[in-house]
Each structure stands twice: as structure tokens, then as C-alpha cells.
């Protein structure tokens, strides 16, 4: 199961980050990764989130390749290490990755990582976006929580908590941008659709 989890995480990261980035660039000629090097809040969140994703990958790698280091340094939470919690996490992880993948497909050429101030995108309100204004972020929050249930330790707890805070800040930044870009259309959408679910 450790090997399966590691492979699943690798494939998931490719499917929800690398593949959509490539496909969007190929269809539009636009790099969908909008985080830059300027010293502002948007780019800072992007840098921190890359670190969190690298740490998440590292936790699953250490769990597979160095179980002694995992037990010694990552402070597993023993009372959460049971089959029930594990399988809840496993189901949530699979559902969240499928959810993210579907939401990305529904965004089509409008999919971006971060705020794209240089290119106007289509305003998506159908599919999963009819039940959540931020379905991809909802999936990411769920995936981080699932990772904690699968490998309950001090680092996955920190990653889930920090990821949740960063995502909440990013959501508010993106929604403020969308409000400016789409004005009353976005206000109407906000009045009908919840931020997460």
C-alpha cells in the first residue's frame, strides 16, 4: 500500500499540475502558471505552495523508502493510525483528485495557476462551478486533509493547516480580481453559489 500511495501521489501531481499546464499552453500559447518573481502577496503564496507540495511528496517518499526515518522524525500520531482512518483518507484522496481533474477539464482554456492579469479568460459557471465557486481549491483542501488521514503525523498536519490558510487567502485574492473583471455578473454568481460548498 505504501508503494501504491507513492505512485498515486506522483501520478496525481502530474495529472493536476503538469498535464493541464502543458495542454493549456499547447491550446493557447499562454503559460497558465501566473506566479512570477516580483515581491508581492500573490507570488509569495505561489512560492510557499510549491514548498508545501514538495514537502507532501517528501512525506510519502520517506514513508515508502525510509520507514525508520518516518517514525523517528515525523512524529506519527499513533491513535489515528488505524484502518478506518486510513481508508477514509484513501477514499477522500481519490474523490478529491477526480474532482480536481473534472473541474480543470470544465475550465478548459481558462485554467490558470494563480491570477492572470494579462489575458482575459472565459467566466466559467457550469458543471462543478455551479455548486462551488472554487471547486479546484475545494479539492485541494480535501486532498491535503486526506493526506493527513493517510499518514497522520506532525508534518502532514502542518501541511494541511498551512495549505488551508494559503488557499483561503488565494481564494479571496482571486475573487477580488474576478469581481473587478466581471463586475455585476460575478456579484450575481456569488449570490447564487457558495465559495466552497
Task: Tell me what you see in this structure.
- The model has no long low-confidence stretch (mean pLDDT 95).
- It is built from 6 helices and no strands.
- The protein is mostly helical and 197 residues long.
- Helix 1 packs parallel to helix 4 (83-107).
- The chain is globular and about 55 Å long.
**Fraction of residues in β-strands:** under 5%
Pick out the low-confidence regions: none
Percent of residues in helical segments?
A: over 70%
- Overall mean pLDDT score? 95
Task: Using the 3D structure, state the CATH architecture.
Answer: Up-down Bundle
What count of helical segments does DSSP give?
6
Taken in chain order, the helices and strands follow as: HHHHHH
Any idea of the CATH topology? Four Helix Bundle (Hemerythrin (Met), subunit A)
Based on secondary structure, the structural category is: mainly alpha
> For the report, how would you describe the main beta sheet?
none
User: What is the highest CATH level, the class?
Assistant: Mainly Alpha
The count of domains is 1
What is the alpha-carbon Rg in Å? 18 Å
Compute the separation of the termini in Å. 31 Å
Strand count: 0
Any idea what the shape is? globular
Keywords:
single chain, 197 residues, mainly alpha, Four Helix Bundle (Hemerythrin (Met), subunit A), 6 helices
Brief description of this entry?
With 197 residues, the chain is mainly alpha-helical.
Give me the secondary-structure topology.
Layout: H1 2-28, H2 41-65, H3 67-73, H4 83-107, H5 135-150, H6 154-192
Amino acid at each position: 500500500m505504501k508503494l501504491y500511495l507513492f505512485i498515486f501521489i506522483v501520478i496525481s501531481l502530474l495529472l493536476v499540475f503538469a498535464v493541464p499546464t502543458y495542454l493549456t499552453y499547447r491550446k493557447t500559447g499562454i503559460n497558465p502558471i501566473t506566479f512570477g518573481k516580483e515581491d508581492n502577496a500573490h507570488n509569495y503564496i505561489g512560492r510557499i505552495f510549491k514548498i508545501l507540495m514538495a514537502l507532501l511528496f517528501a512525506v510519502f517518499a520517506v514513508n515508502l523508502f525510509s520507514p525508520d526515518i518516518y517514525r523517528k522524525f515525523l512524529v506519527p500520531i499513533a491513535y489515528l493510525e488505524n484502518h478506518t482512518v486510513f481508508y477514509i483518507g484513501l477514499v477522500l484522496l481519490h474523490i478529491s483528485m477526480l474532482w480536481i481533474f473534472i473541474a480543470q477539464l470544465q475550465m478548459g482554456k481558462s485554467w490558470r495557476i494563480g491570477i492572470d492579469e494579462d489575458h482575459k479568460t472565459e467566466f466559467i459557471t457550469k458543471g462543478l462551478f455551479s455548486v462551488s465557486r472554487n471547486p479546484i481549491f475545494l479539492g485541494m483542501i480535501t486532498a491535503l486533509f486526506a493526506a493527513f488521514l493517510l499518514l497522520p503525523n506532525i508534518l502532514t498536519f502542518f501541511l494541511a493547516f498551512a495549505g488551508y490558510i494559503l488557499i483561503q487567502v488565494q481564494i479571496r485574492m482571486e475573487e477580488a480580481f474576478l469581481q473587478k473583471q466581471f463586475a455585476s455578473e460575478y456579484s450575481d454568481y456569488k449570490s447564487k453559489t457558495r465559495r466552497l460548498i
